[in-house]
Specification:
By secondary structure, the chain is α/β, with parallel strands linked by helices. It has helices at 55-63, 81-84, 87-94, 104-113, 177-180, 185-196, 200-213, 232-244, 261-275, 290-297, 316-328, 347-357, 379-391, and strands spanning 4-7, 10-12, 16-17, 22-23, 26-27, 32-33, 37-39, 45-47, 73-75, 99-103, 119-123, 128-130, 135-140, 150-154, 159-163, 219-222, 248-255, 279-284, 300-306, 309-310, 313-314, 334-341, 361-362, 367-370. The chain binds MU-OXO-diiron. MU-OXO-diiron (FEO) is lined by residues 78, 80, 82-83, 145-146, 164, 223-224.
Length: 395
């Protein structure tokens, strides 16, 4: 897509990945963008590149604005290859000796990705770079999303180039929050739940730090998705809320099933939760992607996991989800397990152990039913739902 001037002299470079549907295990039903920016000042500056496959498009788009050889400075806010994959060819084109600004960790990490001996200019938190009419300030934002991550703030333009922070995997012709409206928030929430959740405590501190600095922000430009210009505080406030992980009166019942017995248990639980006024979701792991389940987990107070016993263990899709959720370290959750079995019945116990390791508040040892549940045996599932409803906040 053509580059677009988003503020006088500042261009978005137009790389849209319409077709990506799996982003390292995260479902991206609406594709994504790899946002990079060109600042036309006395020192022409490129902020970030794109995934390697999009380098031709990126270079072509730059050439629509200026001869790439005229770029003076390159800034790498984050090493992950969706933003740095294009660096080798971009640096080759514009000049291998051009200064490359990044955090100290950025220099280390880029060096471990690329053998080139580029002219690294590591910057400190709060360090400044004059481009002529403009000055940029660098803010270290470790673990948002990697140890090398930083934000770049354009002082005079009041734009925060926030790398992965405040991003969304969303490909569209719209560029700004006011063009998409509230429909963008589920994408931002999914991004937070699946990419940033495990760093939630750091994000809270970061937001506090930026608030204390009192930086006026007219626009937040992440490296994925749309830019926040109508009300940047909306996404900042959402990050504060998501990071706090205050549990809602909401439960997610996640399961897989072999002969519909565990499914029948899940249905009994969800119906009973509904009767208790709990906002509940029933999610079958072969119909719901793990990243969609995780998005629902973000603000749920209870996570109830059902697995049949297969070969004395947990059903594979359930193990997959448990591994994924464990890595994202959700906080403040009530947990419980359930599942049908034939003769040994380990799954519910093993799931409970996993949830204990995740520091969930286990309020029941787990409901296990042999073979096919009848209406009477499903009462145990209804009782579990009642316990969970009683333990959730009232709201
Ligand atoms: Fe969009 Fe952590 O990379």
């Amino acid at each position: 897509m053509k580059p677009m001037e988003i503020k006088e002299g500042i261009y978005w470079l137009g790389v849209i990945d319409w077709n990506v549907r799996d982003f390292h295990g995260y479902s991206t039903y609406q594709g994504t963008t790899y946002n990079s920016f060109l600042i036309m000042d006395e020192k022409i500056t490129l902020i970030d590149t794109a995934k390697k496959e999009f380098t031709d498009e990126l270079l072509y788009n730059i050439s629509q604005i200026v001869d790439p050889k005229k770029i003076d400075y390159v800034i790498s806010n984050h090493t992950e290859m969706d933003h740095s994959g294009g660096l080798p060819r971009v640096m080759h084109k514009i000049g291998e000796d051009k200064p490359l600004y990044c955090s100290k960790m950025g220099q280390k990490n880029l060096s471990k990705h690329f053998p080139q001996k580029w002219n690294y200019q590591p910057v400190e938190n709060g360090g400044e770079l004059s481009l002529g009419k403009r000055t940029l300030t660098f803010l270290e934002t470790r673990m948002v999303h990697w140890p090398d991550s930083m934000f770049t703030y354009a002082n005079e333009d009041r734009i925060l180039f926030s790398s992965d922070g405040f991003g969304q995997h969303y490909a569209g012709l719209e560029r700004f929050d006011d063009q998409v409206g509230d429909a963008i928030m589920p994408h931002a929430k999914k991004y937070f739940a699946n990419i940033l959740l495990l760093y939630a405590p750091l994000i809270l501190k970061l937001v506090e730090k930026v608030t204390e600095m009192g930086l006026p922000i007219d626009m937040i430009c992440p490296d994925h998705g749309i830019f926040w210009r109508k009300d940047p505080s909306k996404i900042i406030n959402a990050y504060v809320e998501w990071s706090a992980q205050k549990p809602k009166r909401k439960a997610v019942v996640v399961y897989d099933t072999m002969w519909h017995s565990t499914e029948a248990m899940g249905e009994a639980i969800i119906n009973a939760l509904g009767e208790e006024g709990v906002d509940a979701r029933l999610m079958h792991l072969r119909n719901c992607h793990r990243s969609d389940v995780m998005t629902e987990v973000l603000d749920a107070g209870a996570i109830i996991i059902g697995s049949p016993t297969l070969n004395n263990g947990i059903f594979p899709t359930v193990s997959d989800f448990l591994t994924y959720m464990k890595g994202l370290k959700p906080l403040n959750k009530i947990g419980a397990a359930f599942g049908s079995f034939g003769w040994s019945g380990e799954a519910a116990k093993l799931v409970t152990k996993e949830l204990e390791q995740m520091k969930f508040d286990i309020i029941d040892p787990g409901v296990r039913i042999q073979y096919v549940p009848d209406d009477k045996s499903l009462d145990a599932c209804r009782e579990l739902a009642k316990k969970i409803a009683d333990a959730l906040p009232a709201e």
